[in-house]
Write a structure and sequence with these properties.
The structure holds two protein chains of two kinds. Chain A is α/β, with parallel strands linked by helices. In chain A, 30% of the residues lie in helices and 28% in strands. Chain A has helices spanning 16-25, 89-105, 127-135, 151-164; strands at residues 2-9, 38-47, 50-59, 78-84, 109-115, 139-142. Chain A starts with a strand and ends with a helix. Classes of the chains: A alpha/beta, B alpha+beta. Chain A binds chain B through residues 12-13, 32-34, 36-40, 55, 63, 65-66, 69, 71-72, 74-75, 87, and chain B through 58-59, 62-63, 65-66, 82-85, 93, 95, 118, 121-122, 125-126, 128-130, 132-133, 136.
């Protein structure tokens, strides 16, 4: 069976762990529990009649307290750049992390995940910004780990892109 | 108790497992594996003569590459993995850390379960991040309120334009001198009100320009010394009218480059606001001096006056606060000038302050990061 390593990247409290839990265990909790260190989960999928195991590396959100180790990304076939749509600055952070990772390891398939789309009244990402990212070739998907919206789609989109390589 | 038993007991107590690396991802356990590892690997695997730790723990599989690099380099010290979480067979989660070391000429991997230390770290980081999120939330709330206030002030300015137009039309009519005087008072007050509204709007615009790009690179970044020079030229007449002088510090070398992160028009406003403030406190016959000093990665612009100095109860926090106007006849107009300076300088990653000078008068200063000059 094909196995692919996927790293969840993004600022703290954007919902990386919640997305993985929703995808793997179909569970969501509103309580924010910070991730310290790395947690790896497995999920088996079937994409276009092909069996695939995703190794999901849920990596702590980088901030002034914890710096991301590039060695954790070694061997990754895909990144999910997770953004909290209600905190505009987390998009810049996700893109900066991707740039740093590309410099260290070369380009890796990535999808931008605009999470917490259930909080539409607090949304801070301009549609123009999204369009501009799409124009630059990014896959941008809205998700809500809370409602489950877009979660399956995000992983499927990335899995399909990784399998095409 | 035999030595081996003491050794094994010690490792168990430390929640520490030792493995010798045999190459190709294969490890040999040294001593009896502690309980935490048995819970993760399963009893059979944990007690095997050799095992591939990476098969059960993909994180460790990734770390072996770093460990091999360390062992091959024959360096002193250790290579550390950082923390990761493993789920045991019973479903409980355990925090682990691994280190690669050389011991007695052998490649040794230490795997530890520092649960208390890890839990404490989680508690500290959780508190710090919760506080950061709360802080971000408060800032957002403040920004929303400021935008609302900005809209209100903007709306207030519109009828004023009509009032001022009507007053101008009235002035064209012939009327008794006492009415004309009243009309002039109304006109002066409406002008003053318009200036205040403009000031408020500009201060808010400065705040809302938080994401506005600044010139931080190369020849396009503004030159702080040139801004000081332009400010001195712009204020010559105002100072002459007051019988005072405004000069550039004789120590300022204008042949050097003094480029900072920022944007020129707003830098000129910062110097201008500080000079206006100094002018209000400048006695006739005295001099206001503008200059720039440098340290490693920052430049500091300053405005020195020879006035009475800062009041005893004045603090930088209070002076640079929104609507802080000072007291008495030398009070500012709307309390927005210094606030604008503070907002703008901080946005550019700098700081602003004031202090009494050792001789006489006060110094108002602002410190900004140097622009990065990239050579081709």
């Amino acid at each position: 069976m094909i196995q692919k390593k996927v790293c969840m990247l993004g600022s703290f409290s954007v919902g990386k762990t919640s997305l993985v839990r929703r995808f793997v265990e179909s569970i969501f909790s509103d309580t924010y529990l910070t991730t310290v260190g790395v947690k790896i989960d497995k999920k088996q999928m079937q994409i276009d009649h092909q069996d695939l195991t995703l190794m999901l590396w849920d990596i702590y959100g980088e901030d002034e307290f914890q710096k991301l180790r590039m060695s954790y990304l070694r061997g990754a076939s895909g990144f999910l750049l997770v953004v909290d749509g209600t905190r505009r600055e987390t998009l810049d952070k996700a893109l900066a992390l991707k740039e740093e990772a590309d410099k260290a390891l070369g380009a890796v398939r990535s999808v931008i995940v605009l999470n917490k789309c259930d909080l539409s009244e607090q949304w801070e990402i301009d549609p123009e910004k999204e369009n501009s990212l799409a124009t630059q070739g990014w896959s941008v998907i809205h998700t809500s780990a809370k409602t489950g919206q877009g979660v399956e789609e995000v992983f499927t989109t990335l899995a399909r892109a990784m399998l095409r390589e | 108790m035999a030595d081996d038993a003491v050794y094994t007991s010690f490792l168990q107590g430390q929640r520490l497992a030792l493995f010798e690396y045999l190459g190709e991802g294969v490890f040999r356990p040294i001593g009896t594996p502690p309980g935490f590892l048995t819970a993760i690997l399963g009893r059979d695997a944990a007690n095997a003569a050799t095992l591939r730790l990476g098969d059960s723990m993909p994180f460790l599989d990734n770390f072996v590459a770093d460990a091999e690099e360390f062992w091959d380099s024959h360096s002193e010290g250790r290579a550390e993995s950082g923390a990761w979480i493993e789920k045991g067979e019973d479903g409980s989660e355990r925090a682990l850390e691994a280190s690669a070391v050389w011991l007695a000429g052998r490649k040794i991997l230490l795997v530890q379960n520092p649960q208390e230390r890890y839990d404490e770290r989680v508690r500290v980081l959780q508190t710090a991040r919760d506080s950061l999120l709360e802080h971000e939330k408060l800032l957002r709330e403040i920004q929303k309120k400021e935008i609302l206030l900005h809209c209100i002030v903007h709306d207030l300015s519109q009828p004023l334009t009509a009032i001022r137009g009507s007053l101008s039309l009235l002035k064209l009519q012939s009327m008794a001198p006492e009415f004309k005087e009243v009309l002039e008072i109304a006109e002066r007050q409406s002008e003053k009100q318009e200036a205040m509204i403009r000031g408020i709007l500009e201060a808010f615009s400065a705040e809302l320009a938080a994401q506005q790009a600044t010139e931080s690179d190369g020849s396009r970044a503004p030159d702080l010394a040139r801004c000081a020079e332009k400010t001195v030229q712009a204020f010559q007449t105002a100072f002459q009218e007051r019988g005072a002088r405004i000069v550039l510090s004789p120590e300022l070398d204008l042949t050097r480059e003094w480029r900072v992160k920022g944007e020129e028009s707003r830098l000129l406003r910062i110097f201008g606001n500080l000079v206006e403030n100094a002018l209000r406190h400048t006695p006739a016959g005295s001099t206001v001096t503008l200059g720039v000093t440098a340290d490693d990665s920052f430049l500091t612009g300053f405005v020195d006056d020879e006035g009475p100095g800062l009041p005893e109860d004045a603090t930088a926090t209070r002076l640079f606060a929104l609507f802080a106007k000072g007291k008495g006849e030398r009070a500012g107009k709307a309390g927005l000038g210094l606030y604008f300076c503070k907002m703008t300088v901080e946005r550019w990653g700098g700081s602003i302050g004031c202090e009494n000078r050792p001789t006489a008068g006060a110094r108002f200063w602002f410190r900004l990061p140097r622009a990065e000059i990239h050579s081709q």
